[in-house]
Amino acid sequence: MVLLNRHPEHRQPLASADAVSLGVAGATEAEGFLGLRENHAETPQHSLPALAAELGIGALHVKDEGQRLGLGSFKALGGSYAVIRLVLEEAAKRLGRTVDVTELNEPGVRAIAAGMTFVCATDGNHGRSVAQGAGLVGARSVVFVHAGVSGERVAAIARFGAEMVRVDGGYDHSVRQAAEVAVARGWTVVSDTSWPGYERIPGLVMQGYTVIVREALRHLPKPPTHVFLQAGVGGFAAAIAGHLAIVLGEARPMVTVVEPARAACIFATAEAGRPVKIAHDRPTVMAMLECHEPSPVAWRVLARVGDAFMTVEEDDAVAVMNRLARPQGGDPAIVSGESGGAGLAGLIRAAASPDTRAALGLDEGSRVLIINTEGATDPGRYAELVGMVPDDVLLQTAES
Q1: SS3 of 108, please?
Q2: What is this structure's pTM?
Q3: Band of the pLDDT at 398, cuts 50, 70, 90?
Q4: Considering its fold, how many domains does the chain have in total?
Q5: Pick from 156, 143, 159, 153: nearest CA to 79
Q6: Residues in domain Tryptophan synthase beta chain-like PALP (predicted)?
Q7: Range(s) of the domain holding residue 147
Q8: N or C, which end of the chain is more exposed by having fewer CB within 10 Å?
């Protein structure tokens, strides 16, 4: 299903708070923080001309976040960035002066960080980022995970020193429980979703994601005409689309937000014209996108800069994983996790429908940017769905 944005705020300027968090200055600050990380490297960006020709478009580029900061997903940019910012702000408050990011390892700053506890709820990737950020600064982290998070993903978070808390129910329930416990114990919630009265920290998380756009635009021969962005609560899609709107203005690309049909809370919100919570029905293979209530901040952005909303099926996501693992026509092989290729799944589905192509303005001149938001964050599940282990997939590109 495809729904064009009919919201009255569509194509209006971003709210002032969102323009600040997603603007050039904020992205520059986030990139500056990132440059100080020991394992920082820009993630690869691939051109897939064979698949572009098959889809009847001019160019297809895939920004591969599966190798970001050793965490395997774009989430590495958000939670850890917010944790570091919050530690610096607390240190500045207590020391009575500005504290620079280069001072994070100073004894006085680390002593302050050691007294801080950061808490979050996660499907897997955001929790890794928060736990890693807390570990970098010497703070404590507590991560709430719901029943659907695999043991392999839980273990991957725990390796960063986080205390893990299992809760019944789904992602939205874990978010509420994490927030309740944090309030009771004086901990700091670092969430990638927002709620009334809690917007600034999710804004910082989204600000971290703008680094992806800056890197992508630096290496594209021309700005994209279209982007397809996957969504859970919507923070990633809003961050990318919002920054593109700010830096490209009227030349910004057509933004299509893609969700699993089984967890399409942004689609339902676009239909209703306001944030709505959808019922939890069947789980989706796109586990990192299995969210049933949108982030209000994300929707505030997407109402303005999201141009279309669509859903994809379970088989679409698995087919993309396999297509990227076994490319044709000389295209590079890419490891894409269950949720990572949802944007590409949306493009493939859209390109196959003459009506959808016309609605989105897709043609042989279109330049499409896709972001592979995760690699094999659960290698066992990846091998089960693809029939290859991730290292063997990457070996194809290394040998070509």
Answers
A1: helix
A2: 0.94
A3: low
A4: 2
A5: 143
A6: 39-373
A7: 79-191
A8: C
